[in-house]
Amino acid sequence: MLRTVRATRYVVPLREGGSLPAIVEADDLGLYVVKFRGAGQGILALIAEILAGEIGRTLGLRVPEIVLIDIDAALGRNEPDYEIRQLLKASTGMNLALDYLPGSTMFDPAARDTAAADEASMLVWFDAFTQNIDRTPRNANLLVWHRKLYPIDHGAALFFHHDWPSREKKIASPFVEIEQHILLPWAKGITQAAKVAHERLTEPVLREIVELVPDAWFEAIPGDVSASERRAGYMDFFTRRLEASAVFEEEAIGAHSRLV
Ligand SMILES: Nc1ncnc2c1ncn2[C@@H]1O[C@H](COP(=O)(O)OP(=O)(O)OP(=O)(O)O)[C@@H](O)[C@H]1O
Ligand SMILES: [Mg+2]
Fold first, then answer.
1. 136 lines ligand 1 (CB under 6 A)
2. What CA–CA distance (Å, rounded) separates 132 from 83?
3. Distance separating the N- and C-terminal Cα atoms of the chain
4. Nearest residue CA, atom 13 of ligand 1?
5. Cβ(184) to ligand 1 under 6 A?
6. CA 220 centroid distance within chain
7. Pocket flag, ligand 1, residue 18 (CB < 6 Å)
8. Quick one: which of 68, 100, 56, 96 has its CA closest to 2?
9. 6-45: pLDDT as tens digits
10. 196-217 pLDDT tens trace
């Protein structure tokens, strides 16, 4: 189960985020980065944050804690900014939040940030598995905090769910976009990372992850697919993509060797 907190104060918007995420304080006195369900990206981005984020955590990557955050209609009432007020209004109810890492910076090789081979390889494997295109030098979505790496922003992963019937075609995709991955130069241990990933992503573990998404979020997706059918669909994607993993592992290993 994901922890649930209640928003108590809208602190400040994170202007760099395309989905207007914001720092919000909650009733446990923690600060969180909230991804609002009323934002343009919609509910699928929040579902991808949970599914991909928790898969990353299972793989040993330091994804900041993900919680559900309840937003009351009163929260935005006195917000002077019209756009923020509308966003909060459209997001009343359950939203998604990540533990806020104060003082973190974005991973930047030009600032001499580096990554360990095993960690880089696992992140590359993870992004190829979940088909996340958002880990490029232009937008690393990889925070450095106390000199450790924290992957964030998995809202664009699992792209197939924007076109549910396309799942079948995407399962065995080599994911050629991996050549743009910011950590590819360090990823010299993809074979070993793959071995660890396969050991960890067992069917019961994946099933538990798929259970973390609130039913109401699946039910909010337009279309005539029930929450349990959605869950089964993600399970089918994950288990069959694991079976077909050689195709994206070979692609990533090839892309790495072309770099070095
Ligand atoms: N947990 C966190 N701790 C500290 N800062 C964060 C955290 N999560 C996000 N940020 C900051 O907020 C920015 C926007 O967050 P995020 O990338 O998740 O949103 P987004 O709307 O999907 O952004 P975009 O589409 O522009 O990549 C990040 O680039 C980062 O600077
Ligand atoms: Mg981002």
1. no
2. 28
3. 42
4. 17
5. no
6. 19
7. yes
8. 68
9. 999 999 999 777 789 999 999 999 999 999 999 988 999 9
10. 999 999 999 999 999 999 999 9
Do the strands 66-71 and 4-13 form a parallel or antiparallel pair, or are they unpaired? Answer: parallel
Side chain identity at residue 65, one-letter code: E
Q: What is the pLDDT of residues 72-126, one digit of tens each?
A: 999 999 899 999 999 999 999 999 999 999 999 999 999 999 999 999 999 999 9
Q: Could you identify the residue written with the tokens 């917000």? A: 79
Structural domain spans, the chain: 4-99, 105-259
Residue 66: burial class (beta carbons within 10 Å; 0-12, 13-18, 19+): buried
Q: Token pair 């995420």 is at which residue?
A: 21
